[in-house]
Automatic annotation (TrEMBL), chain A:
UniProt xrefs under InterPro entries: MetI-like (IPR000515), MetI-like_sf (IPR035906)
Annotated ranges, domain ABC transmembrane type-1: 66-261
Annotated protein name in UniProt: Carbohydrate ABC transporter permease
Biological process according to GO: transmembrane transport
Pfam families (alphabetical): BPD_transp_1
Protein's organism: Paenibacillus woosongensis
TrEMBL record, chain B:
Name this protein carries in UniProt: Sugar ABC transporter permease
Keyword terms: Cell membrane, Membrane, Transmembrane, Transmembrane helix, Transport
Residue ranges crossing the lipid bilayer per the database entry: 21-45, 78-100, 112-133, 215-235, 268-288
ABC transmembrane type-1 domain ranges (all copies): 74-289
GO biological process, one term: transmembrane transport
Entry annotated with the keyword Calcium: no
Amino acid sequence: MSKLKRVFTYAFLGGAAFVSIFPFLWMVVSATNKSVEVTKGRLLPGSHLLDNFRKLAESTDLWTSLWNSAKISVLTTILAIVIASLAGYGFEIYRSRAKDIVFSILLLSMMIPFAALMIPLYRMFANISGSLPAIGIDTMASVMLPTITTAFLIFFFRQNSKMFPKDMVEAGRIDGLSELGIFFKIFMPTMKTTYAAAGIITFMSSWNNYLWPLIVLQSPEQKTIPLLISNLGSGYSPDYGLIMLAIVIATLPTALVFFLMQKHFVAGMMGSVK
Amino acid sequence: MKADRTGLSIRAKSNLTGWSFILIAVTMIAAFYFYPMVQALILSFKTGTGSNLTYTGGSNYVRLLSDKTFLTSLSNTFIYLIIQVPVMILLALFISVLLNDSKLKFRGFFRTAIFLPCVTSLVAYSVVFKYLFAADGLVNSLLLKLSVIQVPIQWITDPFWAKITIIIAITWRWTGYNMIFYLSALQNIDSSIYEAARIDGASSFKQFTKITVPMLKPIILFTSITSTIGTLQLFDEVMNITKGGPGNATLSISQYIYNLSFKYTADFGYAATVSYSIVVIIVLLSILQFKVAGDKK
């Protein structure tokens, strides 16, 4: 590499890294400052973190929203990876022509934009509300149900099942395990990495989901954290320090998951195009 | 074939077991994707407010073609698409080529930093961008201090700059995401190909256009299709940065559907019609992208 090229490379990548990180730094710094200081463009950490935190906890349903988001995301993730991995495994291990056709049809659902689904889905849950209030509008179940199963996740598990040695299925049968037993006792423990990757992706998208909860959740005690932030951000006289703190708190779980499991996360994304 | 006590052959039984494994998933997708899809199609032939709907044939589709707000949201979405997707893909390609150099120092840091935006929620980063790009926001005060501009840019309230703000925001959020795909694909290219090219005297630019891009074609196709679908569904950013304004200058199709259903007097039938336009566009563009990419094979 010529010297000029090297200087350019580092300058360019440095610039890109700075632009990528800066909004994070700014929101963390702003979370420790008073609203006026944020508008003045103060870029140094201040001493108002605790003050902002107290105000945020008092003036909003922070804890309720966090708890709602946590419940929904964890439950969705567990159900999603169990259902999708059962299906991915089923499609691959018990392969048949008819199942291949069903699989192709499932994949078509990836082309359907959510915008086309949201009105019928909303009407569906509004109708259910009358007879089955537990899964109707404004419930946790109504947020979760349409997001649990995605063709992408089934595809992801099917692709990864290809790496699962088929001999182990035979070995399990000889040992007298049931078909489900083989799945739970052999497949699941062997495919830990695949499960980790799928879990991270699902958790992140569930934690960050906005449009569907916005439509289906109405009462304040059901709101999730993205709805809380969106509400704070649309106020007339926003308290910047407070809002930035809320954003930092909302970003922490996904940022932590990302840093702890970076390798699995990247592996998971790649798994989708393998 | 041997039959056991149930009267089914082993093969048929195993086939049946297989169906039970996929049953829940197939039911869920049918219930929450395909059934609503059909419902939306039926809805699109009805009009009325709230749940008072009656069949009116194709009147919604006629209205669609002369609906100025729809046409504005459509052209906004296409402006985002035509500018943002190529810019982002080229940027992601360029960065990944730079990062692929094994002699480069701090590779891990650069990669993590540029990927970092992907961990934020669309809502959270949108609100941050809204304040960064406010008239008295940090971006303007920095540009003023550096004397790049003399008067503050009306990022959010000027029709032109509001679009630019949305484009900058999406690019910030997704470039790193695409970069990861290219990086992984680049690592699968045998480095001897580049060595041979270098010996033959091919410039970096030639290597990029003659080796890197053709080798990465399937991944580029994949990322451009997913980015296109993502842009056509744009909602969270527009809703939280500009609310579709000023006027309708940043309104996206998804936000228009949302407005039709939940903001104005609910017109579910017409909203369903608008939503089908996205389905049609996604299908057409995906076919087009496959054709363009497939031609030179």
